[in-house]
Amino acid sequence: MVMMDLVNSVMNLFVPPASLVVMACAWPALYFINTCEWLYKSFHGEDMEDKVVIVTGASSGIGEQIAYEYAKRRVNLVLVARRENRLRGISERARVLGAKHVMIVGADVVKEDECRRFINQVVSYYGRLDHLVNTVSLGHTFYLEEVVDNSVFPHLLDINFWGNVYPTYVALPHLHETNGRIVVNAAVETWLPLPRMSLYGAAKAALINFYDTLRFELNDEIGITIATHGWIGASEVTGGKFMLEEGAEMQRREEREVLKVNGSGSPLEDYAKRIVSGACRGDHYVKCPSWYDIFLIYRYFAPGVLNWTLRQLLASHGARRTSLMGTGRPLLLESGTSSPRSTDSGSSSPRRPEPSSSPWSSSPPRKILAGPSGGPVTFSSSRSPVHPVQMHKLE
């Protein structure tokens, strides 16, 4: 026991700096080898024509754009989402872009029996399955201490984790037959923690660890491509405002939005194109932007520097602001109020909403929510106030 402690002490002292020196010396050679491999795979990538691709969460956002990219490669496309009516228009556009055949399926990927139903339906119709693309995602923008109704917790984990695992579990036997591929949409928050995204980041981290482990278990008989993107900026569709759809009170964190890199937007279509190109090349990881990897080195070798830097960057945005979406607290204000995040003068924390005996029971003709840029998002009284228990999965 004493000897083992001594060995670990010596290793702790010498291995980290030695590893950094070795990496620095080997980096040019590794970079050259990786570049040559990338070029070779780019010219000898997988021919997707007539192959069968399932895209879950295809009714909007990144799932929709990935479907279009696969359509350009003349695949047989299967679009899966809860909102089947949204899939009809997307399927028509996919056909115009070149898809050989498009099937739409309404299903909830959080339920194993529904996953088994649509996987079996696809295999029965086409006779095979080549790519399974999991894109379902749901984020939040609240601080954990703001939550008074924790019923949102299992919803977040169900969608961001089990909504990917169940389709994978059911599809594995069929992917083995074609040496197929699984594509997963993750996020940089898995290794770069950001405030107001604690549960989302935890679920995505679990997802990446699950698929990294599965890759070893499958021994590369089935390929796995994990895609991670940078920080999400303003929505291309909503102009930076939050959308409330189908009664859901959580921020819709679909990758319908523009990816932000130092204030300059990298369009969603480009991210989708990188994912599909990387999957067809057989890449293990697709990162947009790839320079975010440097944060991993800081996280493991200089975590104090990374934490200090992030705090300074986040502090530049001023006083702490939060969204009460999904916390169980009242979200709605009377018409004429410019923002629900008003603060007392001289205070750096938001004023907490006054308690109400029944915040969900009635609503004035018009309500206001705060968008990510502080601007209002309005909706009419025809939509009832929302409650965490009523949260729907957003695809």
TrEMBL record:
Signal peptide: none
The UniProt record lists the keyword Oxidoreductase: yes
GO molecular function: oxidoreductase activity
Any GO CC annotation of this UniProt entry: membrane
InterPro entries associated with the record: NAD(P)-bd_dom_sf (IPR036291), Sc_DH/Rdtase_CS (IPR020904), SDR_fam (IPR002347)
Topology of the protein relative to the lipid bilayer: Single-pass type II membrane protein
UniProt record similarity statement: Belongs to the short-chain dehydrogenases/reductases (SDR) family.
Stated name of the protein: 11-beta-hydroxysteroid dehydrogenase-like 5
Source organism per UniProt: Linum tenue
Top-level taxonomy: Eukaryota, Viridiplantae, Streptophyta, Embryophyta, Tracheophyta
